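Our preliminary data section would be incomplete without showing what the modeling component actually yields. Below, a chain of 154 amino acids is followed by its predicted structure, encoded as C-alpha cells that our downstream tools consume directly.
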Amino acid sequence: METFNIFTGAMDEHASEETPEGYRCNAVSLGKRIGARRMGMTVYELPPGQAICPYHFEWTDEEWLFVLAGTPTLRTPDGEHTLEPGDVVCFPAGPAGAHLVRAGDAPARVAISSTKNEVGIAEYPDSDKVGVWANGTHYMLRRSEHLDYWDGER
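Predicted structure:
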C-alpha cells in the first residue's frame, strides 16, 4: 500500500499561466498515488487570498472538506464562515452543497475528498456555467444557451 502524509506531503504545481489571480494554489491528487478507484482526495496549499476554484456545486458527487492548517473562509448558500484546523464540512450533491474555499490573510492547507463517478457534472451559479467530465474529457458549457432537443438532428 502507498502512503501520503496530508500534513507534510509535497505539492504539485497546480496553477498555470492561464490560472487567474485569486485561484492560484498548489495541490496534489492522491487517488492514483495511493491506489484509490471509488474515492478521491486532493490536498491544496492556498497562499493568502487565493481560492481553490470558483463557487460551484456537484450534481454527481458528495465532497468533504478537511481543514489541515490555517483559517480559510468558506462561502456556502448560507453565507461566509471562517474555518479552523480540524473543521470538517460535507458538501452534499446539488445546490445545497455549493461552496468556495479561500485562504484569508495567511496561507491555508485543506483536503477535499469526494466520491468518484465516471461522469461528473458541476454547476457554477455565479457565471451560469456547467462543467461535464466524461471519459477523461472536460466540457464547459454556458447554462443559459439552451438547445432544442432536436437541434442538429436529421
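The chain has a mean pLDDT of 92. The CA atoms of residues 108 and 129 lie 27 Å apart. Preliminary results of this kind motivate Aim 1 of the renewal.
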